[in-house]
Please model this.
Amino acid sequence: MKITSIEEYLDEYIKIWPFSGNVGVIRHGNIIFKHSYGMACHEYRIQNTIDTCFTLGSISKQFTAFVVMLLNEQGKIDIYKPINDYLPKELMIDNRITAHNLMSHTSGLHQFYNWEEDFFQIYDRGTFNRLDFFQKYINRPLGFEPGAKFEYNNANYNMLAWAIENICNKSFEHVLHEMIFLPLEMNNTVLDDGHNIVKNRAFPYQIDRNDIVRCQYYNEKFSIGAGAVMSNFHDLCKWYRCLKDRKLLSNETYDKFFTENLAGYCYGINRDNIYGRTRFSHGGDHLGVMTYVQYFFEDDICVIILSNLECGNNYHIGNAITEIFFNGSTEKPKRFEKIQLGKEELSKYEGIYLENKIEIQQVGEGVEFMRFNGEVHHLLYPVSDNKFAKVWVDQDKPYTITEDEDGSYEFFGYKKSK
Model:
């Protein structure tokens, strides 16, 4: 079934997945669609409105890269010289790495956002100490030679933020406000440090089994440069207009900012072609954060998705909206089709795949995927003999649990140990 309007698509979508947040579209400076869904604060039953401020996640990287380019124009940083020239002595990294490498995710810095590391939901819950964080998780052997390939890595943008602070002799928060938010009158946009009061903020939630719960705590200070900016729909419209009209930076610098590097990544933003048009886009995904922006400068269209509930799929929603715009219709949203597996068939997948991080247990007609030492429980249902889909997340593709030749089972690349 084809759907021809944004409102109709979203009405069908929330029948399947309980989206919470804001969806908005602007064209030629006019808001042509805006709608708020769900709760900003479940505890006090405060609904999301178009003025609600959401954590942007990795959309924040655009602002970090933009500040670097502003400083480049001012002659305060050369993006092709070693970033060590602009860092404090205690934060030195491989001398071949430049700001260009960091902004384009081609530095080769150690990747600490993975299953094996104890950073995510262990170290990031503690008190932030910049030097300790740097020494434990960033100042490690390179994963590859600088410039050799693309690997998305938050550490790149942590380093940029610290370089900015060192160059300006001011906090990163102050620099963002002074160089971007204030001149663009983005009065509802701030860097969340975990302590400041953010007016009209949406709190992060997720679905644990079948219940909406508050997300686990994590210290936003570890996201400096890479995330932690909070904003709302109206301020992001101002940001889009800045980029569209090429404000604050020269045309020459904008050309660099929007130049495609490896894997279609520019500086803090992706570039690709879709429906015969150039699209700039970026998403943000974290605990209770699902965001997505798309900029079509040639058509003067901006699509903004902001959500505070880890449910559904921000990219599917945003891409369906652009398909309606440029193709006239999109497919009706739907789940993966469920199949029936017997208890004996399901039981063979039960077990621990990575201690305290990945565990599967049989629950009813499906299985439960447990994470973070059993603090988070995702219900999965079978869609084939060895494929399972999340009940509350609109996945691109289902999870696969494979059986190896020796009869052992593997999930996320880890063999079942117990």
